[in-house]
Amino acid sequence: MTVNALVITSGGLVATVVLVLVATGLHAARRRRSSDLRTLGAVGRALAAHAGRRGTDDGRAAARAIAEALRLRYDARRVVVAVATLVELAGPPLPDDLRAVDLVAPEEAFRPGRGASRWHRRSAPAAVRAWMRVRRTAEILVAPVAAPELYDAAGAVQPSEVVRSRRGVIEIHEPGRGRRLPGRSTVRGELALLATIARQVGAEVENTRLEARLRRDAHRDPLTDLLNRSGFLQAAAREVRDGRGAVAVVSFGIVDQVNDTLGHASGERLVTLAARRLDEVCASSRAATTASGARLAARLEGDTFAVVVPGVDPPTAHRGAEEMREHLVRPLVVEGIPFEAPVLVGVAAAGVPGLAGEHDGHVLASRLLSRADIALSAAREGGVPVRCYEPSMGERADRRLALIRGFGPAVTDGHLRVHYQPTVSLEGRIVLGVEALARWEHPELGALLPDEFVPVLEATGQIGGLTEFVLDESLAAARGWLDRGLRLSVAVNLSVGSLDDDFPDLVAAALARHDVPAELLTLEVTESGVSVEREHALPALRRLHALGCRLAVDDFGTGQSSLAHLRRLPVDTVKIDKSFVLGMGTESGDVAVVRAIVEMGHTLGLTVVAEGVESAAVRTALTEMGCDVAQGYLVSRPMPAGSLERWLDALIDAGGASARAEGGPVRWVPPSGTAPGTTGAA
């Protein structure tokens, strides 16, 4: 009994000990799991906070929070989180003599196939031992973290001075304060936890890097790798935020020629060469002597670029732009062919009226770029290769914007009207018809002539609306004159851009709607326009001529038409430009030009019209040359339809009606002397 009881008692003691050990292990495991969860939660919150501020947060706060959570979890003397140039730690600072390059863990510290490693200095490889020695630690846990690419202020990739091979590390120095971690399974768990955290940090790093790459790509031109417009504005905002500096817009103006000659691939090659040369000029020491500080180049579109020069006043900016252009005008060689670029530069500087009080970098950069664009347009129009922005240029731009925005309302609100200028035969002195001329009574800008608003409408694609309006008004007037027994032709000016495949159908529909014979409609195209776009315009012109409409070449003598070219066009009339007719009274050369055009027109079987007839002497000379028709202030100024009808009635009352049947032509009695008023017909 005693022996058996002893045996039973011993067995119970063993069982009790086993149960206690199991319970203790389970409790320790639960504590470790709880600690692991707290650590993972702290890491997750730190990464989530960084993700919420990504793009504006450099990640240091998150790295410090992660380092402190790991130090508490591992009871470590020091924890280091090093990713790219970012180095944060919890615990005592690193030794003062630790060089940046020493922060990079050697390859031997990361065992293949493992997310984290544990090393003792006495048993580690030589490279790892040396690495641990500078940290003054005998035991270390280490896990690799992917590192992001680094960019400078302009978005260029920069080499990291801290982390090589795009690698960062999480280091746990002396976990357990130098005491050995018990048990292999426990060590594996600790390393697994560290590897999990490193992967979480690595995932956030990769997301940050991807976002940085996307931001960079969004602000870079893919062809030249220069900044694009949005990237340039951001970079320029930093350079001019002190209220000083300048922006220049540079146009090489040759890419279209290369595209037409060698193809678009060569055109892209030329743009790349131009970008490289501009970038070199901006980075040269010679440029730095003109204006201190960095210069940033960007590609805006085509072969147009922008440059920012910080810290300069307007005169210095202008001199710098002229010097820059001298370096850019050298020929660009594409496929062995040198192309000389007619480089133009528009410059706008801060610190001038309208910008002197502006210190918001983003607003200032945007306004400088806009002004430089305007100055570049002025350089194109004025033939001066380098132009600085002037307030008058801004007024023209504002006026142009008012025209662009105001055209639609002008049609619907009745601000757009049509005036008519009569044409008469020189020999028979008969009123043959009228030319329809658009007039715009702008509510803010006042009375506008076509010379101002037609080029704007052509550039913005609104010219078709003007053409339809004038055509409809003119045919309605012609119908009214027919109803009165007056057979007057009406001439409508066309932009070559309107001559698409649908335009002849539009004209046919308008003629049918107003019941006007096609021969009473003359459509005028300028010589310069049809010279440039003759292949585009020719099919539509032929269809319009087949409808029965008469076609005229306007402003003849100012374009580039050859006799052979004019012979190919299906035209009935040639109109001599008023600049030659106005000069007939003083310039013998103009008389010779007019006589040559009259003879050439008649040789081709065309009716010849002289515009700008203002004096009896010029009318007499034109009649003697055999010119067919006159138009100008000597006959009449352009006038509204109602005034034209009163003018015709006055001619009829004065005996100007034909003696033939009622409804015949109206005769014109020429005045003597010179027409009063401003020179030139509109």
UniProtKB/TrEMBL annotation:
Domain GGDEF: 243-391
SMART domains, per database record: EAL (SM00052), GGDEF (SM00267)
Keywords: Membrane, Transmembrane, Transmembrane helix
PROSITE patterns the record matches: EAL, GGDEF
EAL domain: residues covered: 400-652
Region annotation (Disordered) ranges: 660-682
Top-rank taxon: Bacteria
Protein name listed in UniProt: EAL domain-containing protein
Organism: Actinomycetospora aurantiaca
